[in-house]
Specification:
CATH superfamily of the largest domain: 2-enoyl-CoA Hydratase, Chain A, domain 1
Shape: globular
Number of domains: 2
Helix content: 40-55%
Structural class: alpha/beta
Strand content: 15-25%
CATH class of the largest domain: Alpha Beta
Bound molecules: octanoyl-coenzyme A
CATH topology of the largest domain: 2-enoyl-CoA Hydratase, Chain A, domain 1
Order of helices and strands: EEHEHHHEEHEEHHEHEHHH
CATH architecture of the largest domain: Alpha-Beta Complex
Number of helices: 11
Length: 256
């Protein structure tokens, strides 16, 4: 099946999802929400798939949620835009999921990578959560998954400052598992092919059991995150932060 915003390929027991909106650095928009959820559901229903690789077209993973799509959302609309159903479905896939990250992995893009089991970065990748500079904060599981992965204070530092970190620091901090020179896709496919040789029964059981323990606390907190994240769309700061980005100027936040 052809999708508008992603490429979806299944071959030799490996499903590949390629984010494909290169003109906006693969920013995640509403169409991508639907395309990804459909591809993930098909993957979950396909017993021949033994591993999944997610990457981005044209040298970037994803520069975040699509700001043009979000700027005028009301809190109710923001609650529907948020990508929990897609990212939770990725995390719940019974088989291993590997993010091959090159270029930018920012905001919702990095949150997508966090929902995967593994993250392989190119040496030139750049990661972070710049939402604070837009008058919002990560709203697609990032406030919960990031501390689980790198610890609470480093997670707060990334989210409170909005700074971008390079791939070496991402490796040092545990945000990525491996660095490769050049395109990380071949290394991710090789890892996936190795998983595909293992017993699918044992591997699926191991993932299910390990995720169950790790995510129970996080899942209980996501509705709270969603309420707070959607609520911020009633603030002037959110409108100002996003409009300033789209108008290519610095935001002037008023705390309202
Ligand atoms: N949304 C929409 N468009 C974007 C985005 C984005 N997140 N990122 C880049 N683009 C567009 C630019 O507007 C530009 O379009 P145009 O050519 O029409 O002007 C094009 O992509 C290329 O970008 P730049 O010209 O800015 O490229 P640079 O190389 O100069 O800069 C950057 C690259 C540094 C990545 C810069 O584009 C940038 O800062 N982008 C925004 C990053 C950001 O703030 N991301 C967080 C977004 S908010 C978020 O992710 C929260 C979502 C939580 C819920 C939803 C989950 C998915």
């Amino acid at each position: 099946m052809d999708y508008k915003t992603i490429k979806f390929i299944t071959d030799s027991h490996i499903a590949q999802i390629v984010l494909n909106r290169p003109a906006s650095l693969n920013a995640l928009n509403r169409d991508m929400w639907h395309d990804m959820l459909d591809a993930v559901k098909r993957t979950a229903a396909d017993d021949s798939v033994r591993a999944v690789v997610i990457s981005g077209a044209d040298g970037n993973f994803a520069a975040g949620g699509d700001i043009a799509d979000m700027v005028d959302l009301t809190p109710l609309e923001a609650a529907r835009f948020v990508f929990h159903p897609v990212f939770n479905a990725i995390e719940d896939l019974p088989v291993p999921v590997i993010a091959a990250v090159s270029g930018y992995a920012l905001g919702g893009g990095m949150e997508l990578a966090l929902a995967c089991d593994f993250r392989i970065f190119s040496e030139t990748a750049s990661a972070g959560f710049p939402e604070i500079n837009l008058g919002i904060f990560p709203g697609a599981g990032g406030t919960q998954r990031l501390p689980l992965l790198i610890g609470l204070s480093r997670a707060k530092e990334l989210i409170f400052t909005g700074q971008r970190i390079d791939a070496r620091k991402a490796l040092e901090w545990g945000l990525c598992d491996r660095l490769v020179a050049g395109d990380p896709l071949p290394a991710a496919l090789e890892m996936a092919a190795n998983f595909a040789k293992k017993s699918p029964v044992a591997l699926k059981a191991a993932k299910r059991v390990m995720n169950f323990g790790a995510i129970r606390g996080m899942r209980a907190s996501i509705p709270f995150e969603e309420e707070a994240w959607a609520g911020i769309f009633s603030s002037e700061d959110q409108k100002e932060g996003m409009r300033a980005f789209l108008e290519k100027r610095k935001p002037a936040f008023k705390g309202k």
